[in-house]
Amino acid sequence: xxxxxxxxxxxxxxxxxxxxxxxxxxxxxxxxxxxxxxxxxxxxxxxxxxxxxxxxxxxxxxxxxxxxxxxxxxxxxxxxxxxxxxxxxxxxxxxxxxxxxxxxxxxxxxxxxxxxxxxxxxxxxxxxxxxxxxxxxxxxxxxxxxxxxxxxxxxxxxxxxxxxxxxxxxxxxxxxxxxxxxxxxxxxxxxxxxxxxxxxxxxxxxxxxxxxxxxxxxxxxxxxxxxxxxxxxxxxxxxxxxxxxxxxxxxxxxxxxxxxxxxxxxxxxxxxxxxxxxxxxxxxxx
Length: 286
What we know:
Elements: E1 2-4, H1 22-44, E2 52-53, E3 59-60, H2 62-78, E4 84-86, E5 100-108, H3 110-114, E6 121-128, E7 131-139, E8 144-148, E9 154-158, E10 171-173, E11 184-188, H4 194-201, E12 207-211, H5 215-221, E13 227-230, H6 236-248, E14 252-255, E15 274-277, E16 281-283
Parallel strand pairs: 4-5, 11-12
Antiparallel strand pairs: 1-16, 2-3, 5-6, 6-7, 7-8, 8-9, 9-10, 13-15, 14-15
Helix pairs in contact: 1-2, 5-6
């Protein structure tokens, strides 16, 4: 057991003169996430999602593709010197990862979207030297937005039903200090398995909550849960934005083998099993 009461400080890479300022990037990815969220909700409220299966048998809808077009085009126009890696463009995933790039999942939780269960998100992250530098997670059907801030820290904003920010709703968020006798775990709504259940039992949590997509990272970041273990397959674009928000809120994400920081830009873009957690959680290897 490794009692990790506070995440290791992450020193972000120094931005070289002439490179895009982090403040500018934070502003633009917020704008693009909101625009993509509005496109997604318009399709969500229609009668036909245009659903089809990808090569791996996972679903993709017109909403995935519309959001991807908005985000990829917007990032390329605003920051042409920063590559974009996105789930929906296989060509963007080819070759070694650059030192600095955007990592995008335009619609995480497509199964939740298709089943009209609401737990789907827009995810945009900036990765530097294998670590999440900035991230934004927008849940349009839940009318919530979480993001890390350029100056440090994290915040949540409320949205209206047209996916516009509610004025003066932004508030800072931080992880909470876990209580051993009152731990709250959040787990996958659609991808549970026995390995995850067995791991969770070690902690004897007082309460277990289910959530879809990257919402789980944000619930920990906002102090609504203490930890989120994942002993199942995920890809880097599934986790990067939520990981960035959680880091900024004072939490961390570690691999369940050797408890190493979860890194990005790995060959194949697949994550190992991991645990995301707030303060005071006694993290154990799987």
